[in-house]
Amino acid sequence: MNKAKLRDKHHEMRRAAAAGAEAETEEKMLANLDKMPAFHEAKTIMMYWSKSAEAPTHKIVESLLEKKKKVVLPISVKKSMTLELYAITSTNERVAGPFGVMEPDAEKCRRVEPDEIDVAIVPGVAFDMDGHRLGHGLGFYDRFLKSANCPKIGLCFDVQIEKEPLPHEAHDVKMDYIVSEKRVLQTIG
Questions:
Q1: Which domains does the chain have, with CATH numbers?
Q2: How many other C-beta atoms can be found within 10 angstroms of the C-beta atom of residue 74?
Q3: Using an 8 Å Cβ cutoff, are 128 and 151 in contact?
Q4: pLDDT of amino acid 2
Q5: pLDDT per position as a tens digit, 120-136
Q6: CA dihedral 18, 136, 46, 158 (to 10 degrees)
Q7: How far is Cα 7 from Cα 3, in angstroms, rounded to an integer?
Q8: Residue range 95-99: average pLDDT?
Q9: pLDDT tens across 72-88, in order?
Q10: How far apart are CA 127 and CA 155, in angstroms?
Q11: Structure confidence by residue, pLDDT tens digits, 21-71
Q12: What is the number of helices (H) and of strands (E) in the chain?
């Protein structure tokens, strides 16, 4: 199956998972993340602010801020198709970004370099057991992940994990772990 068809399939599966998600789904994801030493011990954590059918992160971000972790969220820069990273100290320091995603307010937040990140939590449309990630196809995260020298954790609903390998390119950056509401997978690739 090609990437476009896989994206369509997984967008639908993700929407269904999000619509049927219980209130505890995000708590289960956080509990699974907390089991991981790389996440639990990290001082600076790159997250994403979830929208619509993405694996939920709002409570996770709030929990990390309460624990006095440095939470970093990306800003999507359309012109260069790159991510810029900013540390937030409150969920009130966000504004609507170009893709309808709530992003840090660059005027209120401190810019962070990729080498400051201890662990990166990454969204995706689908993941496979080898750690390959199917994104939305614009390459924002792949460009960032090439410069991130930290564990990379794909966060998703369990239905987003493919048993069969996803199509991938040589430049695609693999995840080290995949976390869902049901399990933690260390990738085999």
A1: 3-186 (3.40.50.10420)
A2: 24
A3: no
A4: 80
A5: 999 999 999 999 999 88
A6: 40
A7: 6
A8: 86
A9: 999 999 899 899 999 99
A10: 9
A11: 877 999 999 999 999 999 999 999 999 999 888 999 999 999 999 999 999
A12: 5, 13
- Token pair in block for residue 46: 């790159």
* Backbone phi and psi for residue 8, each to the nearest 5 degrees, phi listed first: -60, -45
Rounded-to-integer distance, Cα 136 and Cα 3, Å:
9
Q: At what angle do helices 58-66 and 25-34 cross, to 10 degrees?
A: 50
| Apex 55 CA angle, 76 and 113, nearest 5 | 35
Determine the Cα–Cα distance for residues 175 and 188; give it in Å rounded to an integer. 10
* Beta-carbon contacts of residue 141 (< 8 Å; ≥ 6 apart): 83, 122, 123, 124, 133, 135, 173
Specify the length of the chain in residues: 189
Rounded distance, CA 41 to CA 7, Å?
33
Distances (CA, A) of 21 to 24, 26, 80, 94: 8, 9, 35, 25
Give the DSSP H or E segment for 87. Answer: strand 82-88
